[in-house]
Amino acid sequence: MKNIAIIGASGYTGAQITSLINAEANLSIQGLYVSENSLDKGKPLSELYPIYSHISLCLNPLTDDAKHTIVATVDAVVLATDHAVSLHLAAWFYQQGVTVFDLSGAYRFQDLAQYPKWYGFTHEYPEALAEAVYGLAEWNAAKIINSKLIAVPGCYPTASLMALKPITHLLTDTFPVINAVSGVTGAGRKAQLQTSFCEVSLTPYGVLGHRHQPEIVTQLGQEVIFTPHLGNFKRGILATITVKLKLDTSASDISQAFECYSASELVTVKQNQFPKVDDVVLTPNCHIGWKYDEATGYLVIASAIDNLMKGAASQALQCIKIHFDALQNT
Ligand SMILES: NC(=O)C1=CN([C@@H]2O[C@H](COP(=O)(O)OP(=O)(O)OC[C@H]3O[C@@H](n4cnc5c(N)ncnc54)[C@H](OP(=O)(O)O)[C@@H]3O)[C@@H](O)[C@H]2O)C=CC1
Ligand SMILES: CC(=O)N[C@@H](CCC(=O)OP(=O)(O)O)C(=O)O
């Protein structure tokens, strides 16, 4: 049995991972935490989310005493907090010897120079950062097993990388073009004008300047053009990606490349059939569909995930299981 504290549990990803961990026989929840002065401290999680009425846990303020109790009693912490909050909490828990699964972007780049540009802070913890590994579960299991600081990928990078990583050897110098639409929960639970009901209408945002572009490029090892869109639905991401493949690539080369997922229960790949967001919402699955024009060398791939599940909480759970199941066998 592994005991896990969840920090940021009142937020969308925090509540989602609470429900996932609560359903696991080999995991127990040490406690749920919000900020020290949170308006929600002391409330039952089920008051915020009646759908979780079967979970009888309250939201505790993350005081210094609470942090020390966590260190003394847990095997791991999940940080479902903003990047600037995770930056300090992840380093602190890591320095105390606690394994950290961080859902934010604060530890996804090894290159310190990226943080001021994309996250607006200077990274103060190079030692913890050096230990951090990128938690794209299907692609990084060996590193996830051996690290005590796992940086769970962003939602758009997850959808994009799951589609593109199998075919990196077939790509040309022409940049893949990624157009992705996310549901509004991608922006988190706190009130913001641009995500309020009357304001949301399908539109691109962060054009040629979204922080997930360099995250995708770093993990793919190839430049891409990435354009996110906000859609008027709650959950889910659909990334539709156009790529130019090397001369003489055949459809069967592509089928063969996607065979890398044949043993995965969570990833489905189909030729000439495209996924819908509704097929993956509330699931940990990634559905990929592709169509190839051999005459021009253009391939279109669509990748669908639930941003709060494979894009955050269920991917974090995959990482937790990979990490602890492997340790159990040693
Ligand atoms: N939403 C999504 O689809 C995805 C989000 N992510 C990342 O996951 C993280 C969480 O996102 P999301 O769930 O959407 O965010 P939310 O805004 O919905 O939730 C943030 C949570 O953090 C808590 N919190 C804020 N400050 C502190 C603090 N100082 N100490 C402890 N808890 C604090 C908040 O509660 P309170 O303010 O009351 O204290 C709340 O519980 C972010 O880094 C986000 O970028 C990653 C992938 C997908
Ligand atoms: C719709 C929406 O606003 N989505 C978020 C992405 C959420 C995510 O993946 O989180 P990370 O910030 O942890 O990478 C955005 O574009 O900022």
Automatic annotation (TrEMBL):
Highest taxon, organism lineage: Bacteria
PROSITE patterns attached to this UniProt entry: ARGC (PS01224)
Annotated InterPro entries: AGPR, AGPR_AS, AGPR_dimerisation_dom, AGPR_type-1, NAD(P)-bd_dom_sf, Semialdehyde_DH_NAD-bd
Subcellular location: Cytoplasm
Recorded catalytic activity of this chain's protein: N-acetyl-L-glutamate 5-semialdehyde + phosphate + NADP(+) = N-acetyl-L-glutamyl 5-phosphate + NADPH + H(+)
Gene Ontology biological process: L-arginine biosynthetic process
Semialdehyde dehydrogenase NAD-binding domain location: 3-147
Broadest EC class assigned to this enzyme: oxidoreductase
Pathway: Amino-acid biosynthesis; L-arginine biosynthesis; N(2)-acetyl-L-ornithine from L-glutamate: step 3/4
Active-site residues, Swiss-Prot/TrEMBL: 155
EC number: 1.2.1.38
Keyword Amino-acid biosynthesis recorded: yes
CDD domains attached to this UniProt entry: AGPR_1_C, AGPR_1_N
Gene Ontology CC annotation, any one: cytoplasm
Family: Belongs to the NAGSA dehydrogenase family. Type 1 subfamily.
Protein's job: Catalyzes the NADPH-dependent reduction of N-acetyl-5-glutamyl phosphate to yield N-acetyl-L-glutamate 5-semialdehyde.
Protein name: N-acetyl-gamma-glutamyl-phosphate reductase
Species annotation: Shewanella pneumatophori
Gene giving rise to this polypeptide: argC
